[in-house]
UniProtKB/TrEMBL annotation:
It comes from the Bacteria. InterPro entries: Hda (IPR017788), Hda_lid (IPR055199), P-loop_NTPase (IPR027417). PANTHER family: CHROMOSOMAL REPLICATION INITIATOR PROTEIN DNAA (PTHR30050), DNAA REGULATORY INACTIVATOR HDA (PTHR30050:SF5). One of its GO terms (biological process) is DNA replication initiation. Keywords: Initiation factor, Protein biosynthesis. Residues 174-238 form the Hda lid domain. This is DNA replication initiation factor. One of its GO terms (molecular function) is translation initiation factor activity.
Amino acid sequence: MSNDGEDEAVPAQLALAVQLPDDETFASFYPGDNAQLITALKNAAIGQGDEVLYFWGQRGSGRSHLLHATCAEVNAAGEAAAYLPLDGHRQMSPRMLDGMELLPLVCLDNLDAIAGVEEWERAVFNFFNRRRERATGSLLISAVSASRNLGLGLPDLASRLDWGVAYQLKPLDDEGKLSALQLRAELRGFKLPTDVGRFLLNRLSRDMRTLLAALDLLDNASFRAKRKLSIPFAKEILGL
């Protein structure tokens, strides 16, 4: 018995369920040594990618940024994409996956968050099977480690992760982080002096979330105070 009318309504709702940051695009991501992964994600956005693409990287390395960017490309082309942050699974029902197999792009972020959560592991496994039967579009999955190290309780789900290609999102070194900060500043319409960037790297946690948050704070404070960015100003604003 067909239920196509109901199924087709679900993905459109899911695609709009998560508001994507408008500043997390491919243009705002400094690639470092990740050109091959970024090319694969861009191919997925235009329907020419692998059926399943799995990539992993440490927290703060930009995994979510890249998934947001891929969804943004799909949405800009007038297609629907779904982004599901699994680190928020406690506030969501596994039934959110129902119907997602109809979409041209689905992104499951932070798969490691559901390791050992039986109902979610089972739901993702069933979703894999439904999507494979339809053989349409791309499924992008991110986590903090290689799939074999996730500690999944469902062996069949672990085996599904080996169906596609896998990439490691390589972290930026300090020079790469400085370039990433200067790129973000340029896109926001201001200049980050190299000495101020190096000061931030030396005095703050080196994860990109912390660094970008500090950059945003300095940008806003500089605009309000009508002052250029300098090390003394950064010390004053950040309390360093």
